Structures are given as C-alpha cells and as structure tokens.
UniProtKB/TrEMBL annotation:
GO terms for molecular function: protein-macromolecule adaptor activity; zinc ion binding. It holds the Pfam family VPS18_RING_C. It comes from the Eukaryota. Residues 28-90 form the Pep3/Vps18 RING C-terminal domain. GO terms for cellular component: endosome; HOPS complex. The lineage of its organism: Eukaryota, Fungi, Fungi incertae sedis, Mucoromycota, Mucoromycotina. Residues 109-136 form a coiled coil. It comes from Absidia repens. This is Pep3/Vps18 RING C-terminal domain-containing protein. InterPro entries: Pep3/Vps18_RING_C. One of its GO terms (biological process) is vesicle docking involved in exocytosis.
Amino acid sequence: MDDATKSVNNIRLDVRSLKARFTELDQKDQCCICEFPLLTRQFYVFPCDHSYHMDCLINKTTKHLPFRQIRKLADLQEQLSRDIKLQNKLQHVQWAKAANNNSKQIESTDSERDEFRRTKARIERLKTELDDIVANECVYCGQIMIDSIDAPLISLDENDVVLSWMI
C-alpha cells in the first residue's frame, strides 16, 4: 500500500511539473506536419519538442481515432464554435453599448456578466476535452505511430505515382 501511495504522489508531482513546463519558440519554427510557420495559427508543442498546428494535429489524429471519438470530436468542435461566436457577440454588445454612450464605460448588467462568465467557462471546458482527445500524446512519438508501424508507406490511392516511378 505504501508503494502505491508513493507512486501516486510521484505522478502528481510529475503532472504539476509538466503544467509549469514551457518552451521558447522561434519565428522560424514550423509545424511538423505541414511545414508552414508554426506561429501563424493555433498550435500545440509536446514535451518531445514536436509542434503542430491545431488543425493539422486534428486532421492527423482523426485518421487514427475510433468512430465514437471522431463523433465526440466533431460535437466538441461544433459546440466550441457556437460558444466562441456567442462570446464574441456578448463582447460586441458591450462595445456597442460603450460606443453609444460617447465612449463612456458603462457597467454591464449582472446577467450579462454571468452569461459571459458561463460562456467563458464552457469554452475552457470544451477546449480541455478537445485537448484530451487530440493532444493526449504526440502523433510522431506516441501510440498512434506505434500502431501505424505496419501501414504501407504508399497508400493504394497513390498507385498512379508508383507507376510513374517505374522505368
């Protein structure tokens, strides 16, 4: 029992240290999948130093997920998109109110502030769920790569390319 308790405590310390971990990026850093500059869009950086644009990682990961998780991922993306639009709308309403009052900052109503906070909290929760599915591990260093080791290097739909290489 003592060994299990020690293991749990060690895991907790490891998780805390990972949350405080950071990396420095250079403007020349590229996405490992598309090789475009990393800083042009939202991105992930893994402890192994592989980095991916969010959309590139989602596309790459989706090919290896079971159907149930693909469906959950699509639902999360849809909800996230809807909530971000709602958050932007709430902010726009506040800016419009301020502009209509000769740029004087006016106090939001309690219900507007509460709605904004709830939406922000929902967005954070959805992002966390999305991260748990997509960015659970690096696609080049994790289980996905191990599982795909026996996949052919050239897919069947690239047969015409193979034929063009023949002498």
